[in-house]
Amino acid sequence: xxxxxxxxxxxxxxxxxxxxxxxxxxxxxxxxxxxxxxxxxxxxxxxxxxxxxxxxxxxxxxxxxxxxxxxxxxxxxxxxxxxxxxxxxxxxxxxxxxxxxxxxxxxxxxxxxxxxxxxxxxxxxxxxxxxxxxxxxxxxxxxxxxxxxxxxxxxxxxxxxxxxxxxxxxxxxxxxxxxxxxxxxxxxxxxxxxxxxxxxxxxxxxxxxxxxxxxxxxxxxxxxxxxxxxxxxxxxxxxxxxxxxxxxxxxxxxxxxxxxxxxxxxxxxxxxxxxxxxxxxxxxxxxxxxxxxxxxxxxxxxxxxxxxxxxxxxxxxxxxxxxxxxxxxxxxxxxxxxxxxxxxxxxxxxxxxxxxxxxxxxxxxxxxxxxxxxxxxxxxxxxxxxxxxxxxxxxx
Amino acid sequence: xxxxxxxxxxxxxxxxxxxxxxxxxxxxxxxxxxxxxxxxxxxxxxxxxxxxxxxxxxxxxxxxxxxxxxxxxxxxxxxxxxxxxxxxxxxxxxxxxxxxxxxxxxxxxxxxxxxxxxxxxxxxxxxxxxxxxxxxxxxxxxxxxxxxxxxxxxxxxxxxxxxxxxxxxxxxxxxxxxxxxxxxxxxxxxxxxxxxxxxxxxxxxxxxxxxxxxxxxxxxxxxxxxxxxxxxxxxxxxxxxxxxxxxxxxxxxxxxxxxxxxxxxx
Lengths: 396, 266
Description:
heterodimer, A: 396 residues, alpha/beta, six-stranded mixed sheet, four-stranded antiparallel sheet, 15 helices, 14 strands, globular, B: 266 residues, nine-stranded parallel sheet
């Protein structure tokens, strides 16, 4: 659906930002509105998606995994094969081309697992723009490889040690930078979160995932998938995947949140499952918070899912019941990670492993003629240190 | 008198004395609500004309590191909006200086918008400032605060253009809070850089008093900025003192307030 003029999907969304940023958001709304109706802009984005990112990404039937589970056939949308290794590049290429069109000279971004940071650094390098990425101190520890990649690409990585030192705090710091440098700086938000028009714009840039996958499933199987599964942190790969299927009521859509150490442990990031609506980072959406409205600490083995908020369109889709949201625990995600490595020779990102964990749960209950499409949002190279630590293995 | 009238009376009084108003900000609950009560009394004694109490929020995106740390200290003590309203009710009986609450939106929203405005007004709070609530999203709180007789004090920024300014000024009450810099609280930039232009523009659009804040910490800066407006907001400079001296910061805070007030007597 399109949000209303103020950026609301149902009752979620809006623009809850300091006044300093409102003129910048008005400028962005106008610029994006013009760009998306301009065939030249679309052509340029498509050119880079095809020739630089490597789209379309394949849809791959995971035969061995499906056979092992003995139920529905599992298809993987291989966003892990994109340049830089995740779906994030679809969005950053689009936004950086937009920023250049708007005459902005400086790009900022926040990142959790580092994939969005790397994708932003990549697009900025390609177009010769100065780039600064904010990253939580804890995530810098967990994702040293991606920090190094960003620096190789000429980006300045700023460590954020306030708060929990994770994605939420990096986002606070990026917003402060934006408030301070708003006149010449473009803020590339990496998820379908933040103030209007970001949730709509990021979804539009990610919608290529679902558009391609829908077509590819029809070509390969002659039918739509029975079930589409994607992981949800802020929710950009999920929104991009689901968007093409929203009007296909026969397709069941499932978003998988980070169940961390289990919902009863209180250490998780299952915003839609366990949170309630509130305002953070520019929009009204489900939020992990205490009874006084303070944002609650969250946990996930996956740095990319470790976020207390979620995109407003997901909140709306939950309320109207079009998408079912569920959780996978750290343990379930790790088990799915290992199973995919061994059965298919694919090392998935820990984020994507949450979606796989759900597929592993439901596939055996489904029939052999049925199909599940899983968005494999990214590859797992960045997570091997985390997995090694979980296995008690010391890497040099 | 309701909050709007209270603020109007205070500005009239200050103007009559040929002075500019000092609006002093401290974070409520830093390091404890008990200290906050004493600090409010000291600021009142030292000549602050309006006192702004910051409601701690875990993710204060409009604030710099000084206030962020204060917020963390306050939250670590279990400071809540309900506790701050109780404190305010207690204080408004004892000090004549109008109290204004500065809170991010989510704590207010979770408290309940109508309930909050009702309880704040009943506690004697004169007005509210919500830094992450632009005019576009302020409809519900404007209605609730108007009903309660509470001033909704709008923020305008150097990036706000004439048309937005006009709409914001028309919706606001109490005073217009002009952000002196494109930036966050407590940053050191040239605070007089844009305030002349903004204040002039605001004055051409509204009868409301004009206050300037963000980055003003010394008597010299206060005097320089005050030339263009009716009031000066000082926050991080006070909070820094509280950070250093904790529950014994009454004396230093009151000294700075006196110096600032002196500078504003021009």
